[in-house]
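job 3f2a | input accepted
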Amino acid sequence: MKFEHFAINVPDSQATSLWYEEHLGLTVKKKMVESPFMTFLADDSGTVMLEIYSNPKGETLDFVGLHPLAVHLALVSEDPSADKKRLIEAGATEFSDDILPDGSHLVMLRDPWGICLQLCKRAVPMI
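job 3f2a | predicted structure (127 res):
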């Protein structure tokens, strides 16, 4: 088994997916222009996708009320400080910015809708 995608039901999938395309560099693999506005976004490896949709049949999580350790999307970043600055200018907010004892740099942000994004520069890459 391998991951195909991870899906999240959000209140405004069209705005969320557009922000992810523009600011996280994710690439659209499939997009529906009618409800539930499913959008499949691939990372730059082309092997993992995030599905963002607004489906009234399912609940949406209170992302703002969740601690980042409950749910977050972790993204590899070559320069977490620069990416943090750029994403904050685009509407994200900072939750934490940590350098671990092994030298890894982890930044936790919330996108404009409260979904947590972790920017990871690992001292030793995990994959």
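job 3f2a | Helices lie at 13-24, 80-89.
job 3f2a | closed
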